[in-house]
Amino acid sequence: MPAALAPFVVALSAYDLGPGLAGVHRGLPSSTVSITIPEEEPLEIGWVGRPGSRERFRAAVAGLHLSAAELRQERCTRGVWLTLSPLGAGALLGLPASALAGEIADLADVAPAMADLPERLAACRSWPERRALVERRLLAGLARHGDRAGRHGLRATLAALSGTTRVEEAARLLGCSRRHLSSTVRGEFGVTPKEYQRLVRFESARGRMVAAARKGRVGLAAVAAGSGFADQAHLTREWRAMTGYTPTEWLRAEGGLTA
């Protein structure tokens, strides 16, 4: 990954939804902006629990969201997936993350300069070639929009929210009022400070669960405590509300992992 992209790109990888006529993946709540580019045919995405929300996208961009989405890809189930930090939306795509929060849009509408990226990627013969192409396009976006990246001390704002468990605590670290913090975070990222901390806590628990489950069996009480939840019951309630699964059900659905 080029050093210039490191502050803005969280992950860039190939994906495969699996064998069969239709690969299905549940996209979990996220504190990042995600871009999914299927290798061949368009992707169908709908919000879990929202009938009629399913749409087709040649390449999809999803903002920060607190609900789960279902991604379905027929026949060829491969593609490229990348996630951007909230600051990456402005620095690489040219618009604040708040413009995408809770929404899914086509990449061509969000970043017209990248409209031909799906076709260009389909013509590549290897993953290193695809990765290099995506990185070049992101660097071109950074050259156009990078001046948005440091506005209003947003990096410090995200760090304060990620490193604390209460909004008041983050506001004190930043030397501002809770009202000012709320206004800034809503305006730039499209979620409240409390919602952002909720997403960070959720993602921390997800990482801990997967890492522990791959080594054996994971204690959910320990995951809850290490991720900032009040207790295991709190963890379970949040996971059911945000994903439609309990933690145990989700681990099993992810490939036979157990808690």
Automatic annotation (TrEMBL):
User: In the record, what terms sit under GO molecular function?
Assistant: DNA-binding transcription factor activity; sequence-specific DNA binding
Q: Which InterPro entries match?
A: AraC_XylS_family_regulators (IPR050204), HTH_AraC (IPR018060)
What superkingdom heads the lineage?
Bacteria
- Keyword Transcription regulation belongs to the record: yes
The answer on whether this UniProt entry bears the keyword Secreted reads no
Sorted alphabetically, which keywords does the UniProt record give? DNA-binding, Transcription, Transcription regulation
Write down the SMART domains for this protein, in alphabetical order.
HTH_ARAC
Q: Tell me which Pfam families the record gives.
A: HTH_18
Name of protein: Helix-turn-helix domain-containing protein
Originating organism: Nonomuraea phyllanthi
